[in-house]
From TrEMBL:
It comes from Smallanthus sonchifolius. It comes from the Eukaryota. This is Uncharacterized protein.
Length: 137
């Protein structure tokens, strides 16, 4: 069951995700943790990995590597999805987006998850629809 407040749908049992907007690492950590809810099994440094794709997944040929960057003193967050095995014949091209984090947070530091999810899911869709890098001979 969800409740609607000020045209925003929220889960009554879930606390909003809030961060310190003056802390660069806090912002990146919150965005990375939110991404991991969609497509992750393992986290290693700045990469989130699918070591084995889930059964029935659109990613059935190679694993995925998802990584992110938020350069120091910048508000531009880059999220990248690539094949875990780029040399594989079934590897897909890398996709990424770079966007300002300011569009995903309120002035109080609360993450507007719906906007962020929309962007992340769009990137996942771009990867799923990408053509293979290499053709069969």
């Amino acid at each position: 069951m969800t409740t609607t407040t000020n045209d925003t749908t929220t889960s009554p049992t879930k606390n909003p995700k809030k961060t310190n907007l003056l802390d660069h690492n806090s912002i990146k950590h919150l965005l990375d943790e939110t991404v991991t809810e969609l497509i992750v099994y393992t986290k290693e440094k700045n990469a989130f990995l699918f070591t084995y794709p889930p059964t029935g997944s659109a990613y059935n040929s190679t694993g995925l590597m998802v990584s992110s960057k938020l350069p120091r003193f910048s508000d531009m967050y880059t999220l990248t999805i690539a094949s875990a095995d780029p040399k594989s014949i079934s590897a897909k091209p890398t996709v990424e987006f770079t966007k300002s984090v300011t569009k995903w947070f309120t002035k109080d530091g609360v993450l507007v998850e719906g906007l962020f999810w929309k962007d992340v899911e769009g990137l996942v869709g771009d990867y799923a629809n990408a053509k293979d890098n290499k053709k069969s001979k």
